[in-house]
Amino acid sequence: MAAYILRRILLMIPTLFGVMLVTFVVTQFVPGGPVERMLAQIEGHGGVGEVRASGAGDLYQGAQGLDEERIQQLRALYGFDRPPAERFITMMKNYLVFDFGQSYYHHTSVVGLVISKLPVSISLGLWTFVIVYGVCVPLGIKKAMNDGSRFDVVSSTIILIGYAIPGFVLAIVLIVLFGGGSFWNIFPLRGIVSDHWHELGTIARVLDYLWHMVLPVTASAVGSLAVMTLLTKNSFLEEIRKQYVLTARAKGLSEKRVLYRHVFRNAIIPIITGFPGSFIAAFFTGSLLIETIFSLDGMGLLAYESIMNRDYPVVLGTLYFFTIIGLISRLLTDISYVVVDPRITFESVK
């Protein structure tokens, strides 16, 4: 196991380096960078979208009224006075100690900015994760035990309809129905807590938080129910039809004993092995559309704003961090295979 883990960690290094290199190169060719953005504002052109490029490698036309010395000062301010290779090497050295620098747009440290956005993303992702696994696994088992029944057909129809409806469309429907749109005004529509949350007691705070999370979590979780439910059902169906189950039944074992003593530990492997990656992702994922519709200031909205504002320290810093998290979660998923099923060895996992 130790040799396998070490080999995977060593493979993470070139993977991480390659992801960062490709992204860094792409940012060098994207028009409307931070220097051009500042030049456009100085010239009174408003935003990046109102300034047209004058040609490959040239500054934007909004910069043509400024003297060269001022332009060079702006380049030095954002670090663009150095060659790209030097900037990339310096950036990677800083990233090794998790120094992601300062945001161009928010004028604060990238680490502090991400930490300030995490409560929203953690709330949305973690509750979605709990609901998906808490509902889908029992439902999938029930459907497998009643395959082809009326319950199976009706439940499959419902979850597939939910899967077919985009999350942002469902969010709008929920607002119209329960958020004071055209019908009932039951749930709040802004933030994860009320403005007077700090004035409430402990129980009232918990209830206020849960009340705010009902609609966004519902809109986020419904689309994920179908995949996990059908995965669970098909996994159990495959095991139920195997010879050892027929043998166990022939020996007179009850259906409950066959299911939970023999079938469960084999059928649950595909579900459990995806648990580490899904659990880690629940802390850091964010949905732009869900967060925008429900006025949630989380990681999804931060990612969108960073890209649109060419906030490269945030874009590259968060990409570096989340790439590491993704690689680690994949490693934990492979390790979980062996933990859950001792028959699998690392020699067979290449």
UniProtKB/TrEMBL annotation:
Keywords of this entry: Cell membrane, Membrane, Transmembrane, Transmembrane helix, Transport
Domain ABC transmembrane type-1: from-to ranges: 118-333
Mode of membrane association: Multi-pass membrane protein
Gene Ontology cellular-component terms listed: plasma membrane
Protein name: Microcin C ABC transporter permease YejB
Subcellular location: Cell membrane
Pfam families from the UniProt entry: BPD_transp_1
Membrane-spanning ranges: 9-30, 120-141, 153-178, 209-232, 267-294, 314-333
SUPFAM superfamilies per record: MetI-like
A GO biological-process term: microcin transport
CDD domains: TM_PBP2
Family: Belongs to the binding-protein-dependent transport system permease family.
Database matches in InterPro entries: MetI-like (IPR000515), MetI-like_sf (IPR035906)
Coiled-coil stretches noted in the UniProt entry, renumbered to this chain: none
Primary residence: membrane
Statement: the UniProt record of this protein carries the keyword Transmembrane: yes
UniProt keyword Transmembrane present: yes
Gene: yejB
